[in-house]
Amino acid sequence: EAGVTQSPTHLIKTRGQQVTLRCSPISGHTSVYWYQQALGLGLQFLLWYDEGEERNRGNFPPRFSGRQFPNYSSELNVNALELEDSALYLCASSLGLTRQGDEQFFGPGTRLTVL
Amino acid sequence: KNEVEQSPQNLTAQEGEFITINCSYSVGISALHWLQQHPGGGIVSLFMLSSGKKKHGRLIATINIQEKHSSLHITASHPRDSAVYICATKRGTASKLTFGTGTRLQVTL
Predict the structure, then answer these.
(1) d(CA B38, CA A108)
(2) A27 CB burial (10 A radius; 0-12, 13-18, 19+)
(3) Of B43, B96, B98, Cβ closest to residue A106
């Protein structure tokens, strides 16, 4: 069974640009979580989607947004990139709200560098 | 004070040693994850537990809900165990994780 996949693996952008990161959950999982791990900092919760709806949002500015598609894959969009957005962005998936098993499984991450 | 605290921050051990990493949290939780992150960045979930003890190979995780404390033990440590170990808590079903700052473990020959 395929795990959580993310694309791209690495990305280099310049300040002010916009970026879209993609995540495909494990088959059968309806919840997708996005986390940010900035250099030297711990993991921070960004966004949680379940069944196509945003369920919770971390303490990040509105230029961080996302969506979940009917096939449960998800996109994270970051507008007006700033240098401090350079980080590893991790996606995780779980069975979701409608089911009891909710262990989260992580993807390999997308490393974003903003110059 | 962080909601999830880990100790130690850094740990160096010789191959074969028994290792303990501690995690304390300040609010009631539904479950606690122990995660492993290798230098490449990928994260592997080692355990999710809400009570008692779980064992997988040389890894043992325990949790004491009343004391809001969990430990991760590695028996007969090996250089391939070198990684950052992160504890993360969850409040409620299918909700976000709150992470500790991680423990960087280096196991030498």
Answers:
(1) 11
(2) exposed
(3) B43
Taking the Cβ of residue B35 and every Cβ of chain A, the question of whether any pair is shorter than 8 Å is answered with yes
Cβ contact B3:B27 at 8 Å: yes
Asked if the Cβ–Cβ distance from B41 to A44 is below 8 Å, we say no
Residue B49 at interface with chain A, using a CB cutoff of 8 Å: no
**pLDDT-derived band of residue A100, with 50, 70 and 90 as boundaries?**
low
Mind listing the pLDDT tens digit for each residue in A61-88? 999 999 999 999 999 999 999 999 999 9
> Which residues in A lie closer than 8 A to residue B84 (C-beta atoms)?
none
Tens digit of each residue's pLDDT (9 = 90 or more) over B20-37? 999 999 988 889 999 999
At A82, the amino acid letter reads E
d(CA A65, CA B42): 23
Average pLDDT (A44-55) is: 93
For residue B75, the 8-state DSSP code is S
